[in-house]
Design a protein that fits this description.
mainly alpha; 6 helices; two-stranded antiparallel sheet; 2 strands; 56% helix; globular
């Protein structure tokens, strides 16, 4: 954003979107133990849910939020964080990350560093925060 009013409107939209997803996940967990955005049951096991296309589409954005969109763009306002402010979304993120081959398809370090290195007007020095973002630092997997 180039003006305060534009930033305020954009931040409100970010918070509204995150709040909607958080509420949806909270209701889904409470009512049906549904771990993903939409219910997709395995035909062989009624208790097994599979990741869905909406989950896959939202995943890269949510993965980048705390490491890029929040700090670099100030998305949603100062200090807003998936990990601290959206517990259902953080659990969903962890479930998605630990589903199948998801970790092998996303390079978290590259996904973060590319924003800091390529957006000169927002980060003219090209400094990338350290240490590098990892699944462990994001609370996505257990520390071994």
């Amino acid at each position: 954003s180039t003006t305060q009013s534009a930033y305020d409107r954009a931040s409100a939209k970010v918070r509204y979107g995150l709040d909607r997803v958080e509420q949806h996940l909270a209701e889904a967990e409470t009512k049906s133990s549904q771990p993903f955005l939409l219910s997709h049951h395995d035909h062989h096991d009624d208790h097994h849910h599979s990741i869905t296309e909406p989950d896959i589409r939202l995943l890269p954005t949510i993965l980048r939020f705390d490491s890029v969109y929040g700090p670099l763009f100030k998305a949603g306002g100062a200090g807003l964080s998936i990990r601290a402010d959206y517990p259902h979304l953080q659990r969903w993120l962890r479930r998605c990350w630990n589903t199948g081959a998801i970790p092998q398809t996303i390079d978290l370090r590259q996904a973060t560093e590319s924003y800091y290195k390529q957006l000169f007007p927002l980060n003219p020095s090209g400094i990338v925060p350290t240490p590098s973002v990892t699944a462990q630092s994001m609370g996505l997997e257990e520390i071994e």
